[in-house]
Amino acid sequence: MDLKSNEPFWLLKNGLLASYPSLQSNEKCDVLIVGGGITGSLIAHQMIEDGYTTILIDKRELCNGSTSATTSMLQYEIDVPLYELIEKIGKKGAVLSYKACSDAIDTLEKLSKMIKSNAGFKRKKSLYFASKKKDTEWLKKEYQARKENGFEVQWLGEEQILKKFEFENTYGGILSRQGASIDAFQFAHELFMYNVKKGLKIFDKTEMVKVEEYKGFNLVTVDSGYQIKAKKIIYCIGYESKNLLKENFVNLKSTYAVVSEIDKDKFKNISNTLVWNTDDPYLYMRTTDDERMLIGGGDEDFYDAEKRDALLNKKEKEILKNLKKIKPDYHFYPDFVWAGTFGETKDGLPYIGEHKKLRNSYFVLGFGGNGITFSVTGMEMASLFMKNKKHPLSRYFKFGR
Ligand SMILES: Cc1cc2nc3c(=O)[nH]c(=O)nc-3n(C[C@H](O)[C@H](O)[C@H](O)COP(=O)(O)OP(=O)(O)OC[C@H]3O[C@@H](n4cnc5c(N)ncnc54)[C@H](O)[C@@H]3O)c2cc1C
Questions:
Q1: Third-level CATH fold of 9-69+185-248+348-397
Q2: What positions does the domain FAD dependent oxidoreductase occupy (predicted)?
Q3: Which residue's alpha carbon is at the smallest distance from atom 37 of ligand 1?
Q4: Among 3, 218, 288, 361, which is least packed, fewest CB within 10 Å?
């Protein structure tokens, strides 16, 4: 099969998992969540657990934003190396951020078990290898920083990488114990369905077009003209937050992913490992639970969706050429290729917190290669926000930092 598609693999694999009504009456609630991707699903779960009446709206079908395009590697490792993050924000914040992402993986495992998820959560190790000889120096420094701060890591030389993973032309790397992968699209849908049974109200094809303050409440008008009166709003709107908040807090990037045909044998020595390298932009890969290889990379600045998608063929070639460097004899047969947009911040950290422009509101914007794990941390943070309390990470993830 050599079918190519600009639609992300997860959308095609899963089809329409659930459908919800659009808003056709006025409503009121304790918490309104705007945005129904993986972040919205996690925050909605937390709000229902905390006992709030909760409504969630999305202007598309649920999970049709970046959640449908993600490669869903669940990593404690942030795009900015730990030693560099320590230099940028200090040891306390940097180590706390890495630990939060590590804990997030454990939380997702627990949640998957609790809701009896079929979204293929699988624990994996993670290999971060040097693609150039000169990168070994800083990667060893990174290895030391992680080891000193209690992360379970092992240094593998190039011979060990060759033996274990059959990757050629690497210059050593860090093998971490902590990591996992999941089908985030399916998982988010499952979590929504679980919470709908517990009282969560969902309206899709419902766009927030206006928000105003009304007697201490937020009054939200949606595109059908109906209104929702909410004590608090939690914005989980991903990269489209750029439309709401005009300051320059995130650089939008286009990123590309290719998934291979199913092959039970070919990928078996990386089926338990997430892999990424020190290239800029980096190459990243993992296997899927239906035994395909999923590779991403080729990131570049985002201008518009048309320009992004026009590069699909070029980017597919670029990604496969980079794969050839470590797997010269591999015959990779692509089944699907797609592009997605994501955000990159100056310190690799998310924006989770209040914004001075919008009162009684909170943002959970998990950007970058750790978008999903950051959103899990956002659950705890949003829960504290509802109780007017601060989280130890609030000062590192806040706007205007
Ligand atoms: C190709 C690719 C690979 C990635 N790989 C990884 C990875 O390996 N690991 C990882 O952790 N992260 C990865 N990411 C990032 C991760 O996918 C994102 O961080 C995550 O999907 C963001 O989810 P979200 O729910 O915040 O945003 P989205 O899924 O974009 O959801 C936001 C929702 O808000 C809705 N919305 C926006 N405005 C409004 C409005 N006004 N009214 C109503 N609804 C609105 C949108 O319709 C959308 O459904 C990757 C991203 C891409 C594109």
A1: FAD/NAD(P)-binding domain (3.50.50)
A2: 30-383
A3: 237
A4: 3
